[in-house]
């Protein structure tokens, strides 16, 4: 093996050592073996291939459990619509469900038949939508579609109103016999739940924005006729897009 000549030390100079990289020993850290990719486990494009997960491995972390508190005023509707809530959760999502009357809550749990890892989250969103005041037939859309959301805000977040002014604002949003609320829902393809001073809107992201702007205009004092004309223009634009 050829040795690298060492420079001689002169007076007042430091010794410079030249290291040949080929002479250094190659060592592997303990974690490097786990990061290495087997050449046989790659496809034609050079990307790594992994084995498909078993359906039981999709539910990570063993059994998952959720508990949703049920308000007192929603206990009676829960008993009335129990079969509509029970069937999609148990038969389609393959989850266990029970009511805890002492804590006034509804408990969800995965089991060995659960195949979808996001099933318990979908069921949680479905139950919470029902507790906010949405109908079961409307809330069940959260189980079927992935691009639905719920936006909640209060009237005081838009404008500080009290007494009769607050009552009139709620009346403008609902309209006579719920006409204004139904018009906004049909024009924006959303669902609106009025719970005292809280407003909950369910729909896609873009449709929620349009419905929220209409509700905010009513809270600020805009007449319903002006809001209707704005909704007509926006709904016509939405139809042209699709």
How would you describe this protein?
The chain has 242 residues and is of the alpha+beta class. Helices cover 43% and strands 14% of the residues. It folds into two domains: 61-144, Ribosomal Protein S8, Chain: A, domain 1 (2-Layer Sandwich), CATH 3.30.1370; 149-241, 2-Layer Sandwich (Ribosomal Protein S8, Chain: A, domain 1). Strand 5 (191-195) and strand 6 form a beta hairpin. Helix 10 (179-188) runs parallel beside helix 12 and helix 11 packs antiparallel against helix 12. The protein is extended and about 80 Å long. InterPro entries: KH-I_PNO1_first, KH_dom, KH_dom_type_1_sf, KH_PNO1_2nd, KRR1-like_KH1. Keywords: Nucleus, RNA-binding.
Helix-strand blueprint:
Blueprint: H1 32-35, H2 55-58, E1 65-69, H3 75-80, H4 82-92, E2 95-100, E3 105-110, H5 119-132, H6 136-139, H7 141-144, E4 149-154, H8 155-158, H9 164-174, H10 179-188, E5 191-195, E6 198-203, H11 205-219, H12 224-241
Antiparallel strand pairs: 1-3, 2-3, 4-6, 5-6
Helix pairs in contact: 10-12, 11-12
Salient structural properties:
242 residues, alpha+beta, Ribosomal Protein S8, Chain: A, domain 1, three-stranded antiparallel β-sheet, 6 strands, 43% helix, extended
